[in-house]
């Protein structure tokens, strides 16, 4: 303050000195304003204006008020800011804001930028009128609140699907006739009988109605001809034929009217692990240990295509009426979608980390599910788009089946069985297969599974040499076996944070 006193003494001394003092005073005012701005930004509580001239002091205060008003307008347009400005707005009808009602609240230097931003503006009145327009500053809290730009939107909210209730399944019948592991099952299109192939190199045909009640005469026929385990079976829907494939590299066509082999399909270089018929064409597709899937003409026994591209055994197959008409799963952990006309691969899916040993497709959706040790995965069939993972089955999944009611079952190498709601992936039942008396506890692996034509019976082939038939519990209801929505919601939230 001594500098301003010296300036006053110089003004009384002479005219020449007065001119220089006026120039010095104006420079001092400008520099003092700059210093006040800097000091206020550094520490508002100790900032001061180094001048005693009331004109300069009032001018500085007015400039500060103008800066406050401009800063408030910038905050209002951006939706956030760095200074907390408390405004007492008129209750109604005001078109302008009186600068005298604005108060600068000094922010502590210890506050972090995140806390300053989150509490940028405290609004005491919710309805603010500016420039002739009334703006509602808060939608949810009408008594006032903090203006915060929300990053959440309705599109980002997790939508948890509601599972369809299904009755739990229970064991109904056990059939024991094979002398080895039961490796394959096929249902007759008429739903009168089913066939099983075993490691004892035989194929057995069973009457479904009698087998469901455990009748002693359920076994109708035994076919012999393979010299290695029978790994694939399929009934033809247009001919009285049964096709079989085994680890002896043979693919056979059986005439069920004469019970004899009428055709052989030669070409595989190693064991054949899976076999499917095309649903509308007279084509047979087989996959094996030679890492290729072969397409055969049923009538001429001609090999039409060799679908090559996998690096390991082709362990599972799907055939469809629309493109992709062939889907293969391999032990190289990939799934390939094939163009049957060109005989070329359309898409390769690499989401799995373990061998894909099972594939299944429902009749009510253009989707399919693949099973591996890491998880079950739900795919869109037309382009192979990944939709969802069904996690929870911690085993080597050898077999899967689905019925028209949307019940998906997966069987593991350790005897575990999981029942899922197909559309949502809700695991509504889990259990373990029980071995027949006289077998080792380790012989409870499930190798194959198939629903009958009505979807009310589930048939499994297991390592204890038995065939087990399951059915839904007729006494169960939504009251006795409710859906665990709390656990399902937690699982959905957890899986939503994972990529695959």
UniProtKB/TrEMBL annotation:
The WD repeats are at: 175-216, 223-264, 265-306, 307-348, 390-430
Query: Segment Disordered: which positions?
Result: 1-22, 121-155
Q: Name the source's superkingdom.
A: Eukaryota
- Can the keyword Translocase be found in this entry's annotation? no
What keywords would UniProt list here?
Answer: Repeat, WD repeat
Biological processes, Gene Ontology terms: mRNA splicing, via spliceosome
UniProt lists compositionally biased (Low complexity) regions at 1-12
- This protein is called WD40 repeat-like protein
From what organism does this protein derive? Fragilariopsis cylindrus CCMP1102
């Amino acid at each position: 303050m001594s500098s301003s006193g010296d300036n006053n003494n110089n003004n009384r001394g002479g005219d020449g000195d007065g001119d220089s003092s006026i120039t010095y005073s104006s420079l001092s005012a400008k520099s003092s304003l700059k210093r006040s701005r800097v000091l206020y930004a550094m520490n508002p509580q100790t900032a001061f204006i180094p001048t005693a001239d009331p004109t300069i002091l009032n001018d500085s205060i007015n400039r500060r008020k103008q800066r406050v008003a401009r800063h408030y307008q910038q905050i209002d347009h951006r939706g956030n800011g760095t200074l907390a400005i408390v405004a007492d707005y008129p209750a109604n009808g005001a078109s302008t804001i009186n600068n005298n009602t604005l108060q600068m609240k000094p922010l502590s230097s210890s506050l972090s930028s995140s806390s300053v931003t989150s509490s940028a503006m405290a609004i005491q009145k919710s309805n603010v009128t500016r420039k002739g327009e009334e703006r509602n500053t808060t939608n949810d809290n009408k008594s006032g609140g903090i203006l915060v730009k929300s990053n959440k939107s309705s599109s980002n909210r997790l939508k948890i699907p509601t599972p369809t209730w299904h009755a739990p399944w229970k064991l109904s019948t056990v059939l024991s006739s094979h002398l080895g592991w039961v490796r394959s099952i096929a249902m007759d299109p008429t739903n009168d009988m089913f066939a099983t192939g075993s490691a004892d190199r035989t194929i057995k045909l069973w009457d479904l109605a009698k087998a469901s009640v455990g009748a002693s005469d359920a076994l109708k026929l035994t076919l012999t001809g393979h010299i290695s385990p029978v790994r694939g079976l399929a009934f033809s829907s247009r001919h009285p034929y049964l096709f079989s494939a085994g680890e002896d590299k043979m693919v056979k066509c059986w005439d069920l009217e004469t019970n004899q082999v009428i055709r052989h399909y030669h070409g595989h270089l190693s064991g054949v692990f899976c076999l499917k018929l095309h649903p509308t064409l007279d084509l047979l597709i087989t996959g094996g240990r030679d890492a290729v899937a072969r397409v055969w003409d049923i009538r001429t026994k001609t090999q039409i295509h060799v679908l090559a591209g996998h690096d390991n055994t082709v362990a599972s197959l799907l055939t469809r009426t629309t493109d992709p008409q062939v889907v293969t799963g391999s032990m190289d952990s990939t799934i390939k979608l094939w163009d049957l006309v060109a005989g070329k691969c359309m898409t390769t899916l690499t989401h799995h980390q373990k061998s894909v040993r099972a594939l299944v497709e429902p009749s009510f959706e253009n989707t399919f599910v693949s099973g591996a040790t890491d998880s079950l995965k739900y795919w869109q069939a037309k382009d192979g788009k990944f939709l969802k993972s069904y996690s929870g089955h911690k085993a080597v999944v050898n077999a899967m089946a689905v019925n028209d009611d949307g019940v998906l079952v997966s069987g593991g190498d350790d005897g575990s069985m999981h029942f899922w709601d197909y559309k949502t992936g809700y695991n509504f039942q889990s259990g373990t297969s029980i071995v027949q008396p006289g077998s080792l506890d380790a012989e409870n692996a499930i190798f194959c599974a198939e629903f009958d034509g009505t979807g009310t019976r589930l048939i499994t082939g297991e390592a204890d040499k038995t065939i087990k038939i399951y059915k839904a519990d007729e006494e169960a209801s939504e009251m006795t076996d409710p859906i665990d929505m709390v656990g399902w919601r937690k699982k959905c939230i957890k899986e939503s944070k994972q990529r695959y």
